[in-house]
Specification:
Number of strands: 0
Oligomer: single chain
Protein name: DUF599 domain-containing protein
Structural class: mainly alpha
Strand content: under 5%
Keywords: Membrane, Transmembrane, Transmembrane helix
Shape: elongated
Number of domains: 1
Organism: Shewanella youngdeokensis
Distance between the termini: 71 Å
InterPro entries: DUF599
Order of helices and strands: HHHHHHHH
Helix content: over 70%
Length: about 240
């Protein structure tokens, strides 16, 4: 199997971008307003309100909608994985298609198979992330079902319980987000089939896209403002 230095550099950049961004985002979220940090505060406020509602049909509908979205991605991931595994029996045809693309690197039979292995591994990881997220939302359903009714919302013990529910929901959302990132980076890996330089460029573009959406978008600004408003209302209510 002939692997060029450029291929090695490209895959190192790809893996470094993925792992590096995940660690960077986790560290930066601790002291910077972002989607993950602000939504966690929204989830805490939501669970506080859940405790004060005797009838929780609305919460059941909202959570069912979230689980339905994750279920869609989980089933879609299996279909994509089946398609990728099918390509192992059609490597020659795939090489013929790549060879017809202008400026594409000359396909190498063994290297194409390695690329397919990488792609399949990404979608296997994505499937595990989505199914684990679904299970965590199921755990949250159980906790909400077990939560007693607190009319005034002033029970300190139940407020701590509400925070624990928010933590479970937050972990489920993080796992779902990790699965979505697999989709983002899988699109970057597809560029490797054409040329390793494209993999380097696309990996960096995915990182830039994720950063702008999670830390520097109008959605983040709106969610942050909403978090501040909810916090102010909570203080007034607690007085």
């Amino acid at each position: 199997m002939k692997i060029t230095l450029l291929d090695v550099v490209a895959i190192v950049v790809f893996l470094s971008s993925w792992v590096g961004y995940a660690r960077f985002a986790k560290a930066k979220a601790k002291n910077t307003n972002c989607i993950a940090k602000c939504l966690h505060q929204h989830r805490i406020h939501w669970m506080y309100e859940v405790m004060t509602r005797e009838v929780r049909v609305g919460e059941a509908a909202l959570l069912a909608n979230l689980e339905r979205n994750i279920s869609f991605f989980a089933s879609t991931t299996m279909l994509i994985l089946a398609g990728v595994l099918t390509l192992f029996a059609q490597v020659e045809r795939l090489e013929a298609v790549i060879a017809t693309i202008p400026f594409a690197a000359e396909p190498n039979h063994a290297l194409v198979q390695v690329k397919l292995v990488f792609l399949a591994f990404i979608f296997v990881m994505a499937f595990f992330q989505f199914t684990w997220s679904m299970r965590q939302y199921g755990f949250l359903d159980v906790m909400i079902g077990a939560a007693p009714f607190d009319k005034d919302g002033n029970n300190a013990n139940l407020r701590r319980y509400a925070k624990q529910m928010a933590i479970v929901q937050d972990q489920a959302a993080h796992t779902y987000n990790f699965g979505l990132r697999s989709y983002y980076f899988s699109t970057a890996l597809l560029c490797w089939f054409f040329h390793p330089i494209l993999l380097i460029i696309s990996s960096l573009l995915v990182v830039l896209t994720l950063y702008r959406r999670e830390f520097n978008s109008k959605v983040v600004q709106a969610i942050t403002a909403g978090q501040d408003l909810l916090a102010a209302e909570r203080k007034i209510k607690d007085l």
